[in-house]
Amino acid sequence: MENKSGQAHDQCGSPEHGLHRRRFLEGLGGGVGAISAASWAGLFSNPVFAEQTKRKQKRCILLWLCGGPSQFESWDPKPGRITGGPFKSIPTSLPGYHVSELMPNCAKIMHKLAVVRSMKTDLENHNTAIDLLNRGDKPRPPFVRPTLGSVLGQQLGQLDSPIPNFILLDPCPEGNEFKGFKAGNWAGWLGAEYGPVRLGGQYKLPDVKRLPDITTTDHEEREALRRFIGRKYENDRLSAAASSQNAAFARVKGLMSCADLFDLERLPQKDRDRYGPGTFGLHTLLSRHLVENGAPFVMVANGMPWDSHVFHNEIYQMVIPDLDNIIYQLVTDLEERGMLDDTLVVAMGEFGRTPGINQARGRDHYPKAWSMMMTGCGIKQGVVVGETEKDGYEVASKSYDERNLFATIFTALGLDPHREYDLPGLPTFHYVEEKAEPIRELLA
Amino acid sequence: MAEENKHPKVLAKQAKEVRLPTAAYGLALSDDDNLCHVTGMDGGVHAVEIQSGKTKRIGGHDSYAASLERLPGSQTLISAGYDGRILWHDLAKREVVRDVKAHDFWSWQMKVSADGTRLASVTGRYACGGYKYEPAPEVEPSVRVYDTATGEHLAKFPHIPPVQSLAFSPDNRFLAAGNLMGEIRVWDLAKREQVAKWITGSFTGWGIIKGHYYTGGIFDMRFSDDSNELLVCGMGSTRDPAAGNGKQLWQRFDWRSSPAKKLDETHSGEHGAGLMETLDQHPSGEYFVMAGRLFKGNWNVAFFDTATGKLLHSLDCGMRCSKARFNAAGDKLFIAGTVSQGNDKKKIKQFGRLKVFNLS
Amino acid sequence: MPLIRQLNLFPIGQALGLAAVALGLLLPRLANGEETKAMYWEAHIRPLFKQHCLKCHGGAKQKGGLDLRSLGSTLKGGDSGSPVLPGNPDGSLIYKVLLPGADPHMPPGEGKQLPESDLSLVKNWVAAHVSPHSSNTGSEPWAAASPVLKPKPLKLPAASLPASRVIDYLVQIGWQKKGVSPAKRADDRVFLRRVYLDLIGRIPTPSERTAFLADDRLRKREALVDSLLAHPEFAPHMREMFDVLLLGRVDEGKTNRRADNRWHAYLETVFRENRPWNEFVRDIILAGTGDGSERGASWFLYEQNNDHQKMAESIAPVAFGVDVQCAQCHDHPSAPEIKQAHYWGLVSAFNRSKNVDTNNGPGLTESAIGGFISYKNLAKVSAPAELTFLNGKSVSENRPAKDTKEKDDPAKYLVPPGNKVAAKPRFSRREVLAQAALTDNPGLARAFVNRVWAMLTGRGFVHPVKEMSSEYPPSHPELLAWLARDFEQSGHDIKKLIRDIVLSEVYQLDSKPSGLSRPEPSVFAVALEKPLHAEVLFRSLLVATSRWPSESDTKVDAAAFRKLLLSQFPDLFPREYNASIQQAMFLSNNPIVRDMLHPDGGSPGLNLPSLLLNLPGQSERVSVAFETVFGRPPSRDETAMFEGYLGRRDDRPAKGIEQMLWAMVCSPEFLMNH
Q: Residue A276: its chain B contacts at CB < 8 A?
């Protein structure tokens, strides 16, 4: 088992082992001394890696409803009960299943979606819960488990693709606890290059166009020169900073080559009208566009509007119908484009909301019983898993936690959830620990 | 000091607290100080016997019931709810004598005119209408006016939803309505036309910190006795409305000027933070009360001098106040409200409250 | 002793060790067994409890009266007595309840069972790593149940010893304990660059470097440090950093207001004239508007715009070294000595104060009455806020009876309220706070020492810097205590503290580790890398392109460049350094960066790129570039590589130079302080 004192294994999870790994990859590419920045091609030609690229590309879009969306106003309404709030429920295309009246569009396509109403997790603070539902397990310092996007970006991404493996779209630069999370270490023990490219609030990436007075070759060779001169610095010091910088610069070329993909202005106005006009919808449209063009994982957030401790009904009457439309447009579009079978769509937050209304007209955090929605790749359509008792205080069936959820996501995407991370120097960690089971009813 | 002698004195002491099975939103007093009615989160209209604390449900809506008014000089109560319906309850006959579906969406607030001949109700769902989540235009008339005697629909007026509050002028000529964005419109009821429109941005926050949408707005309104001024209340704007930490705020306007002129607002140093939901004026006209929630500070109920706007007296009554009403004699203040509902399924709380204060 | 600076550190350490023994120094020497026990708690059990148990047995609530936040409180136990029978895990409640099928079972709730590995840790702990005496707090400096920040008495080296030598000695003990070899001493070039960046916020110019390298005085490093501390750029650099640390990064408009209202001038005066740090803290709390030395200090509170909670949160790290935000709604979840009462006590200290625009500038007026608030904890139990502070000080006030209004009275004031007046009551809550912060408050000195140590070495004794609670014990408790005491006794002498640290051998270690692996940062056996933040990067780029000190240039809009750098590299001492792709994109594609590095064909004397263009050969270009940008000659490999690069761009030499310089300034050697 891992050494918690971190003493004997003080290199584990350290930048040092990351460095060794990089050297390992470089070595395959054609020599440490090579200046050419075409190391991707070098790696690609290696038989070990060609295998991966043959896999049909799977993708994932995570609609990250940060703040904790209320299950009462969405997937698990309790109309007429004291906990039910003022909104009614409506029948859906799935006989026997009702959603909140605020979701008429999802009601129409319920037979294409899957919902889990029996989520039960431990953590009720944003900080720890956001971390939990993004990484799939509780922290084990000093090791940092990579987030879902980093793992899937690495697993589903293709080595020769310029588009970033992991894109985070969030137009809200603030966001309290989520802001803190965004500034943290997304990629964990996978290494800085698996962190997300972050955009938001503007569709065009700044500084993404090569200046007219420098050729592409010069642009690349200049970067190779930069790497060269940093190499001794990095090796002499086993420098974490240098490797972090290298990871950032390494992604510049790829991002530049696909800069237009991030420009929403290039998409037809009618598409923007369908998803929008709000930012969350427009960024979801952008995520569809990005996965259509090869992005393996896109996470869409919009600050923490779901955290309605105050003015709950006043806010939810707006955000839920907005989400309802967005999910409807996204799923319908993916299906029309023949992409739904290969794209997993997940919509969830870090917990749900309390059955009781608090003194400030709001609902507070509630991890004891909450809901989430999935559809697409590997997920059975038209399934509602689990239920809560009549007032929504507790799960009334088998409950599932973050490990079950992650196991489901991995399995749906064709990845073995219980395999070990195969990284030198890292203690034994699995993608999902302790053989936690995926939610079988959800899997196709 | 000489200055102090000019201001009316008021002191409020809690005399009674009644626990209600549900949060109380609407409140209507009767001629008998021992009996009043509230509407609740359960949609019901409840009769409340103050001394005994006994409550009895006498009818209700399918969803939250937010407003309750007594038709002056009668045994009829009128309620309005989030089911968009307006109900006439005849207390003598003990039945609902009229049921009008006024709106598709909620009735946010409903009031009866001073002479009792008209009632108006405001509606509107906040829907995403822009990149910054500005409200989308109305999909049904935001303001509707009815004849209280016949239930006849008399007029409809446009506004930008959600329209959260309204007020009739004491001279029965005008109707005002305010919305989430702090836009206030005033109509001449006889001529059926708009006579004033302005925006106060002080009550609306755009959630820079947590969520890029608008919250707050105007929660209650009241014309002055001479109908020339309009008093409105809500929560001051803040960059994090999700925290509910805006100022406890009222503003008073001379609405007849063009543009409308702000005359006064809560004085600096005389307020804390929290949403203010209700206004009422003392029958003497000397002072008014504003009540709501205490997020930070010392009070959630405060009395202000009508003439100068100065804070006269304040208290923390330990709950969220949704309606405050003086009785006709002016010696009592009734406040309907709620505390937290709690999340223990084994201990279902009586979380509504009605408090009665003696005034001196 | 001319050989001292040549000596490897070990012999010095040994010499000091002998001297220490000779002087009868007694350092806390924990017997091996004791040490292991304390470390076992810290490394295995405390994190386990924090993860699984503190929600119900921590700051917010203590079910069964059991508080598991500290070793002492754990051993003390709760309603069921002590849950730990040392040596007897099977009989200990703390272990028994964890077993599958136990009743009651911990953690409670369906399906919650700690894994076998965790059970073994607890079993092991009780069996072999707990002393029978409950006073076994080992490396824990805080008394477990004490409500007050009181460090356990430590045996410290004598106060009369030179501080730099005490630093070296105590850090060296740590190396020995961990079996770690320190890096070698940084050579003059490395030292020069580092100390310029740390003290005056830019790299040295070639002539400054030449002068230092040529200096053959014995104590030239000392002389250099003294000259930098007296340098006109010292105070502005310190001001830039402390401005951000105290009040945060803000936009241009707000920054200008800080300057216009003399806050920047005041801060610079503090550093330039080496005003005592404790007087600075008093000045910003009292926020006076006189014409005296404190003019400008009032902006600290004034900018916070009557937000009393924000004021409380901003002063706590300065006065007490802790971040109290967690204690707004409940006692601190994992540090038992930080209570909700302390948070609201600080708020009360400020909530009679309000901004006022006096004829002498912005100030704060304080009322003699009012400001009696209550706060609720999570259980909705209400308590009145009183003036009680983290160092155990409290002052009682007469709370007015409920529903009575206090009468204000000019007699209650030294300076009565009036139009544009900063009123001063006879009993001033802010003065009470200032008094509490400045007397019998070890936290003040400790916080500053920790902060400055972190700024200079890259990591605090307590890390994170603002968490000096029982939750984060310092890596070097004796050294922190000694330096804090020395700081107090010196009269809170800021420059002396900086000087002592910078002239220690620990600070002067090289950043290349001596072995094949990098020792943990908290051992300080190798210099840590620190990223250059925007202002420092800006000035350093001007130096590197030979523009310094002039900012004006025909081609480059320096003000615009600085502004862009501020938006791209805003982080000051980040807890974790993450180069962002946005930064890489900015450096790669923003025209202003290119303009900085491109020869402009004008007068060659103006800047480095133009100068290089006018040099005859590639070899000269490379060596001059290295000397100016990196402060060193290129290696043979580097020369070959760079000359080759330039050679391939013979047809576009200006671009070649620009790109070469780009590769250099975008490399870690330039972007980091090392």
A: 131
What number is the average pLDDT over the span B45-52? Answer: 92
Closest Cα in chain B to C328:
B296
Q: CB–CB of C95/C123 below 8 Å?
A: yes
Q: Are B207 and B150 in contact (CB under 8 A)?
A: no
DSSP, res C370: -
User: Which of C673, C529, C463, C511 lies closest to C182 in space, CA to CA?
Assistant: C511
Q: Is the CB of B162 less than 8 angstroms away from the CB of A355?
A: no
The answer to whether A244 and A294 have CB atoms below 8 angstroms apart is no
* Cα(C296)–Cα(C288) distance, integer angstroms: 8
Instruction: Kindly list the domain boundaries of chain B, sorted by start residue.
Output: 7-22+70-359
A292-334 pLDDT, tens digit per residue, is 998 999 999 988 999 999 889 999 999 999 999 999 999 999 9
Give me the amino acid identity at A283.
H
What does the DSSP 8-state code read for residue C43? I
Neighbours of chain C (3+ CB pairs under 8 A): A, B
Could you give the CA distance from residue A145 to residue C474 in angstroms, rounded to a whole number? 26
Burial readout A96-132 (b: 16 or more C-beta within 10 A, e: otherwise): ebbbbbbbebbbebbebbbbbbbbbbbbbbbebbbbb
Q: Which domains does chain A have, with CATH numbers?
A: 59-204+264-442 (3.40.720.10), 205-262 (no CATH)
Tokens of A193: 């290059």
C642 part of contact set with chain A, CB < 8 Å: yes
**For residue A12, which amino acid is it?**
C
Residue type, A268: P
DSSP class of residue A59 equals E
Q: Which residues of A touch C597 (CB under 8 A)?
A: none
pLDDT band for position A206 (cuts 50, 70, 90): confident
- Mean pLDDT to the nearest integer, C67-71: 85
pLDDT of residue A14: 36
pLDDT of A436: 95
**Across C382-458, where does the E strand assignment appear?**
382-384, 387-388, 394-395, 413-415, 424-425
Q: Write the DSSP symbol of residue C42.
A: I
Give the mean pLDDT of A23-33: 32
Q: Is A384 left (phi over 0), alpha (psi -120 to 50) or beta?
A: beta
Tens of pLDDT along B129-184?
998 899 999 999 999 999 999 999 999 999 999 999 999 999 999 999 999 999 99
B7-22+70-359 placed in CATH 2.130.10.10: yes
Quote the pLDDT of residue C67: 87
Rounded CA separation C236/A180 (Å): 30
Are residues B145 and B118 in contact, defined by beta-carbon separation less than 8 angstroms? yes
Please tell me what DSSP assigns to residue B301. E
Residue C549 phi, psi (nearest 5): -90, 0
> Which residue is closest to C348 within chain B, CA to CA?
B297
Statement: the pTM of the whole predicted model exceeds 0.80: no
Residue ranges of alpha helices (H) inside A82-215 are 104-108, 126-135, 148-156, 177-182
Do B13 and C373 count as a contact with CB atoms less than 8 A apart?
no
Beta-strand pair B95-101/B54-60:
unpaired
Position A32 scores a pLDDT of: 32
Residue A326 and residue A105: Cα distance in Å, rounded?
A: 9
A272 vs B298 pLDDT, higher one? A272
Residues of A in contact with B211 (CB under 8 A): 67, 172, 302-307, 315, 319
Residue C372 sits at the chain B interface (C-beta within 8 Å):
yes
